[in-house]
């Protein structure tokens, strides 16, 4: 009886161990690729064709495909369903990949592939062997799908409905790639970190002429960067990169989504990214060549890391001053100024809040920059500035005449002005005979403006910010107007060829109005953040028209797909 019980225990143990081992070796998706499908892409191509003056572009491409396949086209392919691919791995490092095509008839697709690609395709039973590529592939029909893989035996591991692996990606994006960091085997994660560590150690090698202190500072910054990357890799759950075309709005965008694992510091950091109200929302002007607005909160770790970086930067600046050949008095003065500014910035960091805006304003023969940020103690900065001006008056009274403290006030913000004569002709054409610099300071706000009519432009953006301060804005947004940049570039005294190219681009964007922007926006998602880069309709239309104009015969192919002789 005892032997029987021991045998049963042993069997139970072995069965349990087998289940555990099986669970441990289960292959999980590490990377997944999604393609929205042939029909969806033909619709997108028609949008780009319409913007470029060729609305039936997809019909021309379909005609070319018919010619290349000897009239077969894509027989056997369901043009309405998505495509996909997945790379799998287990904890022991075993890998496999599959590609899924929505095939109604793999035999027909194989015949088409033989015509399109110089490959050897043979069928044995129900499996095709495809040779002539960098790696031999195997394919078989599995329900409504054609499954391709790198190993014949792995084909049986493919799921019955591979579309489930793609999730919502085909409905949200035309092309997308998802990386599941949580499924990356530990052996690969360790190899990746080892490679990163090796690369950084090469970068940390002492440079010629570098002092011990300089090398220590640089090595410390590099080590902190490595630790941040390590934390990201360890605490990241998924990363997804997706591209989508929206024919109804005539726009296209790329999204990068990052999500963190539950209960991690990274998840806490992402959770702090929320929409809110900004004192600097007015900087997001459609007419600005470039504009930025950012709000948010900082965690204790963020504060510590930022202060460490600030400390390293401060030490580097002091070391640089020692090599500038300053007198002892000049060195001490500069050192004190840097120390005071460091203390001012540290106090702002310790508030754990961020709110800022900036805009670059470009017009033909006119350039100006305006910026603003929330601070902990604006009066402290004003005191530092006042001390600096007093020191300048003692050492260089003539230079002090260019500084006007408390020149004017707007919205309770004191404007301090500095004017600098401009000698360079190109610079004169942009800012005038005198460069105007304005520092605006209040208790909790600081502004900076430079360029033509700097003070007037700063007042305007402050008024716009005041009117918009009750609006909810995303955590971060950037806007770039290529039309404004092109018009400004065309007005510069550049070479004939450069001037012609910029004038051509500016002309192509002339009809875009305010729809000529590259937009970059960060928004929170569950346990993560989505960063989007979007191209507006006017910009896409300008690029399409320029490509059409540069292509032979305006980018159009004659019937039959062949260019006439001599072209």
Rounded Rg = 31 Å
Give the number of helices.
18
Beta strand count: 22
Question: Low-confidence segments, ≥5 residues, pLDDT <50?
Answer: 1-24, 550-567
Distance between the termini: 94 Å
Mean pLDDT: 82
Shape category: globular
Let me know the largest β-sheet.
20 strands, antiparallel
Strand content: 25-35%
Helix-strand makeup class: alpha+beta
Give the helix proportion (percent range). Answer: 40-55%
Produce the secondary structure layout:
Layout: H1 2-24, E1 28-35, H2 38-51, H3 57-68, E2 83-89, E3 95-101, H4 106-116, E4 120-124, E5 127-131, E6 137-142, E7 145-149, H5 163-166, H6 169-172, E8 175-180, H7 186-203, H8 212-235, E9 236-246, E10 251-260, H9 265-271, E11 276-277, E12 290-297, H10 300-322, H11 328-349, E13 353-363, E14 366-374, H12 378-395, H13 397-400, E15 403-410, E16 413-421, H14 425-431, E17 434-441, E18 445-451, H15 454-468, E19 472-473, E20 476-481, H16 482-491, H17 496-508, E21 517-525, E22 528-535, H18 537-550
Antiparallel strand pairs: 1-2, 1-8, 2-3, 3-7, 4-5, 5-6, 6-7, 8-9, 9-10, 10-22, 11-19, 12-13, 12-20, 13-14, 14-18, 15-16, 16-17, 17-18, 20-21, 21-22
Helix pairs in contact: 7-8, 8-10, 10-11, 11-12, 16-17
What are the defining features of this structure?
567 residues, alpha+beta, 20-stranded antiparallel beta sheet, 18 helices, 22 strands, 43% helix, disordered N terminus
């Amino acid at each position: 009886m005892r032997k029987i019980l021991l045998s049963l225990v042993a069997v139970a143990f072995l069965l349990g161990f087998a289940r555990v081992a099986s669970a441990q070796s289960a292959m999980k998706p590490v990377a997944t690729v999604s393609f929205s499908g042939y029909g969806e892409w033909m619709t997108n191509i028609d949008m780009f064709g319409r913007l470029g003056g060729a609305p039936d572009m997809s019909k021309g491409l379909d005609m070319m495909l018919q010619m290349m396949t000897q009239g077969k086209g894509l027989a056997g392919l369901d043009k309405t369903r998505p495509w996909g691919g997945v790379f799998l791995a287990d904890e022991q490092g075993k890998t496999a990949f599959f590609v899924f095509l929505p095939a109604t008839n793999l035999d027909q697709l194989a015949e088409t592939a033989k015509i399109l690609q110089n490959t050897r395709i043979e069928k044995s039973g129900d499996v095709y062997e495809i040779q002539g590529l960098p790696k031999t592939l195997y394919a078989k029909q599995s329900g409504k799908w054609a499954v391709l893989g790198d190993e014949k035996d792995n084909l049986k591991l493919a799921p019955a409905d591979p579309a489930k692996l793609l999730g919502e990606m085909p409905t949200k994006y035309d092309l997308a790639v998802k990386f599941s960091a949580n499924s990356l085997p530990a052996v690969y994660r360790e190899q990746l970190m080892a490679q990163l560590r090796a690369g950084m150690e090469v970068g940390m090698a002492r440079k010629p002429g570098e002092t011990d202190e300089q090398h220590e500072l640089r090595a410390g910054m590099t080590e902190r960067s490595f630790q941040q990357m390590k934390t990201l890799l360890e605490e990241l759950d998924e990363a997804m990169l997706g591209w989508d075309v929206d024919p109804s709005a005539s726009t296209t965008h790329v999204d990068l989504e990052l999500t963190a694992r539950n209960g991690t510091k990274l998840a806490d950091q992402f959770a702090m990214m929320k929409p809110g109200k900004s004192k600097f929302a007015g900087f997001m002007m459609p007419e600005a060549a470039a504009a930025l607005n950012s709000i948010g909160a900082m965690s204790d770790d963020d504060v510590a890391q930022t202060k460490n970086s600030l400390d390293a930067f401060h030490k580097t600046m002091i070391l640089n001053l020692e090599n500038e050949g300053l007198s002892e008095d000049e060195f001490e003065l500069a050192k004190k100024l840097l120390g005071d500014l460091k203390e001012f910035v540290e106090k702002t960091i310790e508030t754990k809040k961020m709110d800022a805006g900036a805009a670059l304003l470009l017009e033909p023969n006119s350039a100006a920059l305006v910026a603003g940020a929330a601070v902990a103690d604006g009066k402290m900065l004003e005191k530092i500035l006042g001390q600096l001006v007093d020191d300048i008056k003692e050492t260089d009274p003539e230079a002090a005449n260019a500084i006007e403290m408390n020149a004017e006030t707007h919205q309770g913000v004191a404007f301090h002005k500095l004017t600098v004569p401009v000698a360079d002709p190109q610079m004169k054409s942009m800012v005038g005979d005198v460069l105007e610099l304005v520092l605006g300071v209040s208790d909790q706000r600081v502004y900076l403006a430079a360029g033509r009519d700097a003070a007037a432009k700063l007042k305007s953006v402050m008024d716009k910010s005041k009117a918009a301060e009750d609006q909810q804005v995303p955590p971060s947004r950037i806007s770039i107007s290529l039309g404004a940049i092109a018009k400004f570039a065309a007005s510069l005294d550049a070479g004939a060829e450069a001037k012609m190219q910029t004038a051509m681009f500016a002309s192509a964007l002339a009809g875009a109005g305010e729809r000529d922007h590259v937009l970059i926006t960060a928004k929170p998602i569950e346990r993560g953040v989505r960063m989007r880069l979007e191209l507006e309709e006017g910009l896409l239309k300008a690029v399409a028209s320029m490509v059409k104009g540069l292509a032979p015969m305006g980018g159009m192919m004659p019937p039959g797909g062949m260019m006439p002789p001599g072209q």
